[in-house]
Amino acid sequence: MLKNNVLESEIDIKSQFYDLDPMNIVWHGNYARFFEQARCALLDKLDFNYQQMSETGYAWPIVDMRIKYVRPVRFPQTVRVTATLAEYENRLKINYLIRDAETLEKVTKGFTIQVAVDINTEEMMFQSPPILIEKVESLLCSPN
Amino acid sequence: MLKNNVLESEIDIKSQFYDLDPMNIVWHGNYARFFEQARCALLDKLDFNYQQMSETGYAWPIVDMRIKYVRPVRFPQTVRVTATLAEYENRLKINYLIRDAETLEKVTKGFTIQVAVDINTEEMMFQSPPILIEKVESLLCSPN
Amino acid sequence: MLKNNVLESEIDIKSQFYDLDPMNIVWHGNYARFFEQARCALLDKLDFNYQQMSETGYAWPIVDMRIKYVRPVRFPQTVRVTATLAEYENRLKINYLIRDAETLEKVTKGFTIQVAVDINTEEMMFQSPPILIEKVESLLCSPN
Amino acid sequence: MLKNNVLESEIDIKSQFYDLDPMNIVWHGNYARFFEQARCALLDKLDFNYQQMSETGYAWPIVDMRIKYVRPVRFPQTVRVTATLAEYENRLKINYLIRDAETLEKVTKGFTIQVAVDINTEEMMFQSPPILIEKVESLLCSPN
Lengths: 144, 144, 144, 144
Known about the structure:
The structure is a homotetramer.
Chain A: E1 8-14, H1 31-45, H2 50-55, E2 58-59, E3 62-69, E4 78-87, E5 92-100, E6 106-114, E7 117-118, H3 130-141
Antiparallel strand pairs in A: 1-4, 2-7, 3-6, 4-5, 5-6
C-alpha cells in the first residue's frame, strides 16, 4: 500500500539490533543508511541509479545532509521512509520523511543535496547534466 | 600541537579502509562517527561525558545534525576534527570543523543539537539542567 | 517462496551502496549484519528474541563467529540468508548459509556461538537455561 | 611502549560510543574494524598496503575470518590490537590478539585469511605473487 508518486519513493525498513545504541534507540548516525535506501529507490525510479550515474561520466557526491530527529526509533520498529525529489536542475535535492510504518506518526525528516562532478576533470558542475534533466522531465510528462 | 581552548576540543582521526565507499572516498554517513569522537572529547573536557550525563537522570539525544561536505576524505588521510561548544543554556549545540591534519585545508563543517530528556518522565526539557550550566560556567571562569 | 523448516529461518537482504568497499563489493565485516538479521528471524520463530531473552535474566553474548567468503556480493545483488539452529542444549550455535537469491549459488557460510550469561552475577552458564530448551523442544514436537 | 617485532604490529584503539550495543558493550560485528586497523598497520610495515597491493595487479579479498570473544569491551576502554603474520607463501593469514591496553588482559583473538586474486582475470591464485614473498623475506632478513 505504499504511495508511489512520480517523483517520490517509499520503502519500509525494519530497524535491527545492530542499529541500536546503549539508550536502546537507533543510533543517530544510522539514519544516513535509511535515507540512502530510500534515495536509491527514488533514483531507480528516475532510471538514474548509481550504475547509470557512473556511465554518464559524472559522480554525484553528497555535499549537504540534514537530519531532524523528532522521535526515537526502537527495535524492532518498522519505519516508512519517503524520498521526494525537491530540486534537480542545478543540483539534486531530496527530502526525506520517516514515519512509523503502522501509525504513520512522524519520526524524522531531513534532506540531502548532491552535485554533479565531472569524473575526469573533478570539476563541480553548477548545472545538472542534460541527461538527468531529460530523465526527470520525461517522467514528469509520462501519462504514468 | 592541538589547540585546546576552554570550550573546544580537537582530535586527529586517521581514515580507515572500512570508511570508504566505491568512489574511494569516506562514505558521507561515516562523518557522524568523526563528529561523535570529537564531541566525546569535548564532553570529557566539560566533565560531562556519557557516564556523567546518565548519572544526572537526563539523556541527551541528538535532535538535529547537519553536515556540509566541502572536500572528500581519502584513505589514509588524517583529519583534524574540532568540536566547539556553541550553546549550552537551553540545549547543547556543538559546531564541528574538519580539516586536513597537515595542510589544515577545510574538509567539512557541521553541527549537532542535543536536548535534555528526563529519563524517568521521558519529557524533553526546554532549559538545560543546572548541573550542565554549572560545569560550563565553572570552566569558563577557571584561570585555566 | 522461502523455505520454513522448524529450526531454520530464511530472509532476503538486498545489498546497499553503503555496504560496499572500494573494490565495489560488500565489505567483509558487514556480513555480521546479514547474519544478525537472519539470527533474529530464527529467534523470533523460537519465540526467544532479544526482548524475551532479556526478560529471562540472561544475556546471550556471541563468543565465537566464523565467516567463510566464497564469492563476493555486488550491489544491488539480493542474497538469501538461511540461519539454522545447530546446538541449543549447552550453548546456542547457529549456522548460516548465504546464497544469491535468484541463482541460489553459494556465496558465504559461517556460524555464531552464543552462551547464556546470568545478568546479575555476570557468570557464564555451561548449560542453556531450561526456558530455551523448552521453547526449542516444544517447537520440535509441534505438529507445525 | 608498543612492541614492534618484524612481522607484527600493535595499535591502541579507544572504543567509542558508536561501537556499543544495547548491552553497553562493543557490538560483536565491530571487531572486524579493529582487526582491519591492525592489519593495515602490519601491511604498512610490510610495505604492502592497500595502494601498493592494487598497483601489483592483485586484489586480496578476505576469504575467512574468525573471532573468538573472551571478554566484552566497554566504553571508553582502550584495547591493544596485535596483528601477526602467520602465513604468506600461499595465502595471507594474520592472527589477532586484543588485550586491554592497561591490564593486558586478553579480550579477543581471531584470524583473517586473504588470497590473491588477479584483477584482470578474476582468477584466484594458489600461491602468493612473488612481490609479497620478496617483501616479507627482505623484512625477515633485514638487520632492523
